Amino acid sequence: MNSLNPVMRIGDQMIDVTVQHSELTKREARERVIDVLRVVGLSERVVRSYPHELSGGMKQRVIIAMAVTLNPQLIVADEPTTALDVNVQRAVLETIAEIKQRTGATIIFVSHDMAVHAELVDRLAIMYAGEVVEVGTVYDIFEAPKHPYSQRLIGSIPQLGGKRTRLESITGIAPSPIAWPQGCRFHPRCPMVMDVCKRVAPPLFEIIPGHQAACHLYGEAQPIQLHSEAAI
């Protein structure tokens, strides 16, 4: 939300950007801005508002509207629900899902909230210490995570209903970026660590079609190159 200029009206900022990056006239840009604001559930009056006059959820919707004004094919949504209460988070997620359906754009959704991923995305990439450790469909990863980090990450999520079980935890602390561990970066915290993990960084192994994990436990599988496909 820091991308909103505090001394400019919402409409002026959006129109300026639209005119600069398209062939639309100022009048056409204004009409386009009003249209996209309506798509994200905001009224025309927002065009004349300053950022401080809007709630956190409204500002987040303005940011989404700005992102789709020029009809991009790829949108990167980096923690779009941070610092929002649960009700506003729901509204923002519904807006993002509607934008995806309306525009057909690929959305890369970055978040620490696993519940959000479970609800919103089609494919999921889990990262640890700056590296992708598992890639697959959201169903495959939540139902049968393969990497030890993914298993403990998902195992730490409280479940509503069903048998009561003790939540799993990940011992130790995350490594420092200035001193990554040799080999697999998760090995100091991994309960299934092997000698090879301490020496050699594992590639992504294809476990089943479309589901890969960077773990020496799957050394018999076929190593692959990572594709840019972890998007909703």
Shape: elongated
Any idea what the radius of gyration is? Answer: 21 Å
What number is the mean pLDDT? 87
Count structural domains.
2
CATH topology of the largest domain: Rossmann fold
Please trace the helix and strand order, writing H or E for each element: HHHEHEHEEHHEEE
**Helical coverage, percent range:** 25-40%
In whole angstroms, how far apart are the ends?
A: 22 Å
How many helices?
Answer: 7
Strand content: 5-15%
Structural class: alpha+beta
CATH class of the largest domain: Alpha Beta
Please tell me about this protein's structure.
This protein is of the alpha+beta class and 232 residues long. The protein is built from seven helices and seven strands; from the N terminus they run H-H-H-E-H-E-H-E-E-H-H-E-E-E. It has helices at residues 10-20, 26-39, 56-68, 86-103, 114-120, 138-143, 148-155, and strands at residues 74-78, 106-110, 123-128, 131-137, 204-208, 211-213, 222-224. The strands form two sheets. A five-stranded antiparallel sheet has the order 3-4-6-5-7. Helix 1 (10-20) crosses helix 2 (26-39) and helix 3 (56-68) packs parallel to helix 4 (86-103). The longest helix is centred in the middle third of the chain and has 18 residues, at 86-103.
